[in-house]
Amino acid sequence: MRSEYTTSHFFNMNYPIDKLHLLTLNVGLAVHHGDWNWKNVRSPFARLYYVTEGTAQIEMPSGVYTLTPNHLYFIPAYTKHSYICDSAFSHYYIHIYEDLQSEMSILEEWDYPVEVNACNTDLELVKRLCFINPFLKLPQSNPDAYDNHQTLVSNLQLNQRRPFCDKVESRGILFVLMSRFLKYATPKAEVKDDRIQISLNYIRKNINAQLDIDFLANKACMSKDHYIRLFKRETGETPNAYITKRKLEKAELSLVTTAMPVKSIADILGYDDYSYFNRLFKKYAGVTPQKYRELHFE
């Protein structure tokens, strides 16, 4: 059975803060009048909202959440969700991209609450983030207009060209706002069996490697057949299917946020056979990697 963790126990592990690299992709104030109703939104970046007026709802796999003033809301990357709004509603939005400089992703490794109470100073921090990054405001709220390769790459480049003082201040504000959620974060617990959970953590941290099922089974102290059966029972997927899905999610992120050649993305993810990678991605996304990138340029 799984060991029980408390938030204080987890943070006493002294996780190095220098491993957390957050970038502001977009930030601004959005004012709606019953027109915030986008369906099945899914992006390679996380979203953080601060509600100022009115109410709206977000439908997520974990349930439907009502957004109310003076609260912060967090939606992880790759989470399919829909917005429901039938009245006046205003909120600040922050789109967050984790610039991975190590094998560990803090936003990916932990489970966060969707909603937390905002502190008295949070609104001023969000306003300050908008003030020093006016060029990151979205021209419109339709995700199809900004959730694309061209916009994301442009914003990443703008982040790099900013004055150093603005980079430091922006990152500091993101740290403060994310700390509201980190306070209640828990280690991601996807399964009940600790051996499989350890295996999942290992896969995520080494997703760029050529992961061998025999090695993973041996690491979990099981026979290969028993490991595959237990893995599927716990996750609903075979180890190969789970690994492939994770690798292709990383491919999506690279295709949308970088200009890296498709073959280089395949190589980084451990696919030596470029043709096989193309077929695999098309089966997963419905289009080839190159077409996926082109579609996100539109």
Question: What's this, in brief?
Answer:
This protein has helices at 7-11, 106-109, 122-132, 143-146, 149-161, 164-182, 194-205, 213-219, 224-235, 239-257, 262-268, 274-285, 289-295; strands at residues 22-33, 46-54, 56-60, 63-67, 71-75, 82-84, 88-98, 110-111, 115-117, 186-187.
How would you characterize the overall build of this protein?
The chain has 298 residues and is an alpha+beta fold. It has 13 helices and ten strands. The chain has helices at residues 7-11, 106-109, 122-132, 143-146, 149-161, 164-182, 194-205, 213-219, 224-235, 239-257, 262-268, 274-285, 289-295; strands spanning 22-33, 46-54, 56-60, 63-67, 71-75, 82-84, 88-98, 110-111, 115-117, 186-187. The strands form three sheets. Strands 1-7-2-5-9 form a five-stranded antiparallel β-sheet. Strands 4-3-6 form a three-stranded antiparallel β-sheet, with no helix packed on it. A two-stranded antiparallel sheet has the order 8-10. Helix 8 crosses helix 9 (224-235) and helix 10 (239-257) packs across helix 13 (289-295). It is globular, with a radius of gyration of 20 Å.
Q: Rounded to an integer, what's the Rg over CA atoms?
A: 20 Å
| Overall pLDDT metric | 85
In whole angstroms, the N-to-C terminal distance is 48 Å
**Neighbour order of strands in the largest sheet:** 1-7-2-5-9
Supply the helix-strand structural class.
alpha+beta
| DSSP helix fraction | 40-55%
What sort of overall outline do the alpha carbons produce when their principal axes are compared? globular
